[in-house]
Amino acid sequence: MTSSRRHHLKSLMLQIAASWLEQEAKEIEEAKEAHMAENCPAPDLSGDQAALVEICKKLHQAIDKIDEDRYDSEAKVAKTDKEIGELKLRVQELGGVKKPALKKVRMSADAMLQALLGGKHKVTMDLRANLKQVKKEVKEEATEAVGDWRKNVEDKADRKKMFETS
Predict the structure, then answer these.
(1) How many domains are there within the chain?
(2) What span, in angstroms and rounded, lies between the C-alpha atoms of 66 and 54?
(3) Which GO terms describe its cellular component (predicted)?
């Protein structure tokens, strides 16, 4: 797709989106006007002063009732917000504290035991001292192998007979 085609498609999409936004704003405004016409009819101001005073009293009573409802709803919202905050804290406590990634530390076994048991305990873990000492036997067959090959074949034949008889 060429850049001019891509730019043209993008501008078309933006025009369509702008028209949708304008249409949505008009619908919201119409819904607001319909709601106001339904719930708040225009007051009838024709009449004498006593009728107007009565209308004002009714309006003040309606305003007081609406203020009470608003205060109650604000109190409910504040209470639920506080509960939500407490529940979030409880969830964090139940989840526990995340343990940080441990760093690799090179430490000898003696130093590790001293750190775990404290400085007053003297414990040594010399693992090499507990190992068995194994002595290697040096074989001298290497020098004999250079000798007569027929002797070696006869030795092998005797070994073969030993395994066959048992």
Answers:
(1) 2
(2) 18
(3) troponin complex
